[in-house]
């Protein structure tokens, strides 16, 4: 096959806009070919939704694309420039191990970045090798697809290809490249970079680009940049509320890891909380708990504040007035976040309508879960199916008292019992990617070449609200005696 035929068969359909921004925003890049590309996993349904042909994507030529050995026709590989506050400290970053191949236009006219992660060194690599290990790339694949299954906005994973090369992270590990699909990779850090290192004109160009790509409604607003800020704040309020509701801990909410599209991005040391505790941290490098579960909403404020600062010169000619507008937008974020969280919690508890005491009722349950170290997901799962297992929480008198208040609240609503259960099932996943099951799948795949556990896990996670009997094994908690879970950046 000629490359053009292969391109047509695979369904690549690029129209690249980022590369038309001023060249200070990126570095065009040559590919960094690897020894032995081999496909590890491919996302058939995602490929189809992108207008691509799964069969053709399994061809040798297509796999060379996923390993970063060949650019498909129409691709214009580049590494994006951005800055980021890493645990609060500002650094110049950029894609140190990623390449944006281009923007795929779907049959429905949607635009998605196609990015290779682990594709080799770039001008932004800062001493790193530009590579990624198979385990962490499969981990991103599993968790991002789980988030999609949960209905949470996220970047997605199209494929993981092994490189046949070894990388070194304290030990020798198999290398791999992840093909990531995102609405865009514009980050708070992209604005931080533009505001700090480029001209005001560049900043306005980036703001216009972001409005056109993600917030077209802001183009008609009286103050378009304020509308952009409000739009970003609204999407973060909704996103972070969704994280809190399922117990997702991102782990490294640096400003370079907050996407302006409102998608969850950059799955490094993330994990789902087991026992309910707002102080839960999994990341080995988050020693002060900056990105603990209970801190995430406030970190949203912190990151949005950094974003708002970049926009100040565009918000108003008068500096004080610009600050006032920014502050109002950020206050709006907190109000919206609380509203989303409260309505989401009501739904998790099957409560229709609103009563003044709902917040207190929810808070009491949270306190009880924390006191009795109850599993967050399984507590709501039990309440949903109406079967309370034998554990410290459900056996406590405090819980019995709480349950009485809850039942009384439910009895006051006119909806049927059936409708109440349906509401709870739609809002309480019966399964999440439990840490021990993710580790088990990764170990089988990356150490023994056995992909079966990962495929089974992915199948279960695709429908987390199904409450199907065959999924039940994935709801089982890790055995006692398994120490506290730790995640690593894997860079
Ligand atoms: P992350 O922790 O993945 O969000 O990455 C933070 C920054 O470090 C980004 O600029 C990455 O591109 C860069 N980075 C991470 N791993 C590597 C690596 N192995 N080689 C070069 N740069 C890297
Ligand atoms: Mg990052």
* Gap from first CA to last CA: 37 Å
Kindly provide the radius of gyration, computed on alpha-carbon positions and rounded to a whole number of angstroms: 23 Å
Shape assignment: globular
Largest sheet: 6 strands, antiparallel
- Average pLDDT, all residues: 96
Spell out which ligands are present.
adenosine monophosphate, magnesium ion
How many helices? 16
Q: What proportion of the residues is helical, as a percent range?
A: 40-55%
For this structure, the quaternary state is: single chain
Low-confidence stretches: none
The number of strands is 12
Order of helices and strands: HEEHHHEEEEEEHEEHHHEEHHHHHHHH
Structural class: alpha+beta
Protein name: Protein nucleotidyltransferase YdiU
GO molecular function, one term: magnesium ion binding
Cofactor: Mg(2+); Mn(2+)
EC number: 2.7.7.-, 2.7.7.108
Describe the protein in words:
By secondary structure, the protein is of the alpha+beta class. Among the domains are: 5-184, no CATH class; 189-346, no CATH class. It has 16 helices and twelve strands. The chain has helices spanning 3-10, 44-49, 54-57, 60-66, 134-149, 188-197, 200-214, 224-246, 296-315, 319-348, 358-371, 376-385, 397-411, 417-427, 435-448, 452-461, and strands spanning 26-28, 38-42, 78-80, 83-86, 89-92, 98-105, 111-117, 132-133, 156-168, 172-182, 248-249, 271-272. The strands form four sheets. Strands 2, 6, 7, 8, 9 and 10 form a six-stranded antiparallel beta sheet that branches. A two-stranded antiparallel sheet has the order 1-3. Strands 4-5 form a two-stranded antiparallel sheet. A hairpin with a 3-residue loop joins strand 9 and strand 10. Helix 8 packs antiparallel against helix 9, helix 8 runs parallel beside helix 10 (319-348) and helix 9 packs antiparallel against helix 10. The chain starts with a helix and ends in a 30-residue tail after the last helix. Adenosine monophosphate binds at residues 93-97, 124-125, 128-131, 257, 266, 268, 489, 491.
